[in-house]
């Protein structure tokens, strides 16, 4: 509901009336507003790396090119910013695909525990930070129908955040459980955490708790928004809990139907 107030005033200066007009903001207006906001965000996110690149390229053209020390540094910045833009545009393309109504998953059955180990192994092999991994993953096979590429991306986004925000020597805990008709996956870190009032907002497009920090870490602000869309396309849910100074846990569920014995026949 939006309210507009008009004050009725006489020439003498006395106020003798007040008109209040209440507008019901319809669903369509809300969608339009969200769209405008999204376009403004995208433009801003693209303009920032572009203006940075422009000033570095200008400096190079103005003589920095002949400076053996400055030239490679400036080129390196231009490269980093280009890469950020490519990541951003790729993320935007992905979101627009997820938004389209004929979006289809290409699902197969996977033994989720084994699959989860495989994804974590990849991070454990390539991680550059001093962070230990703890796995709480049941041994028994848990068959879940997923679009493997999509869920891999969800896990990549969550795990890379957990690593990015982990302190030196911190631990990341990976957990898989069957809870009722779902599997629940959680990834916990011992990082800086997120203020309570912001926790639910981290799944919004372009929302970052600390813009400067996210940029410095190469973030686009879209990773968790994409993860949310992908989990919802699987009819699951995603959320986070966090305590400032203690760490963050990101959870998601996926529907799970235990196979009956006669399914094997
Ligand atoms: P980004 O590209 O900025 O990482 P994401 O969509 O992945 O974008 O995350 C959105 C924001 O949520 C991040 O900018 C950060 O502020 C916060 N965030 C996400 N994961 C964590 C985490 N594990 N610990 C602390 N903050 C986090």
TrEMBL record:
The protein's superkingdom reads Bacteria
Q: Which part of the chain is the Histidine kinase domain?
A: 41-258
Q: Does the keyword Disulfide bond apply?
A: no
Keyword flag Membrane: yes
Give the UniProt subcellular location, in the record's own words. Cell membrane
GO biological processes: cellular response to phosphate starvation; regulation of DNA-templated transcription
Question: What is the protein named?
Answer: histidine kinase
One GO CC term, this protein = plasma membrane
